[in-house]
Amino acid sequence: STLRLFDAHGNMLSGSVPFNLWTNLTSLEDLYLQNNVLSGTLKSDICMLRSLKRVYLASNYLEGSLPNLSCLSSLEVLVLLGNNFDMIRTNTFHGLSQLSVLNIAAQNIYNILELEEAAFSGTSAEVVLSGCTIPYLPSNLFAQSNRTYFDLKNLGITSDHEHVAENVTDGDLVVYSSAVSQENPEIVEAKGKAIP
Question: Residue 188 — φ and ψ, nearest 5°?
Answer without folding.
Answer: -60, -45
